[in-house]
Amino acid sequence: MRRTSIHEHCAKLIAQNAAQLVAAGDMGRTEAIAEVTDWLRREDEAEADVTGVEAAENEFPSPSKAAPRSQIAAIASELMQASLDAADTL
Question: Can you tell me whether residue 58 is helix, strand or coil?
């Protein structure tokens, strides 16, 4: 049961942050999901790096401009299934 909770949390994180990138016009949907998923994967790997270099170099994919919350929420909802699939790869 805990795995599902973590899985769903990761999927929501992917959908929300990918939606911000899409709403800003920085990336397409597929590219944004891949970018956020890769960041999460690198973040997980960085925890094992005792030097802290990987964590410092793992830059979070931030949108270039803000978008309305309602637009981000609508896009995130549309991205949820693809984000669940992406979370399966973590």
Answer: coil
Distance from C-alpha of 19 to C-alpha of 78, rounded to nearest angstrom: 9
pTM, entire model: 0.88
Q: How does pLDDT run across 30-79, given as a tens digit for each residue?
A: 999 999 999 999 988 888 888 888 888 888 999 999 999 999 999 999 99
For 3, residues 6+ apart whose C-beta sits below 8 A from its C-beta are none
Please check whether residue 20 is in contact with residue 27, taking contact to mean a CB–CB distance below 8 angstroms: no
Residue 22 DSSP SS3? helix
**Which among 71, 6, 67 is positioned nearest to 79, based on CA atoms?**
71
Q: Work out whether the CA dihedral 89, 8, 3, 36 comes out positive or negative.
A: positive
Q: Rounded to 5 degrees, what angle do the CA atoms 29, 42, 73 make? A: 35
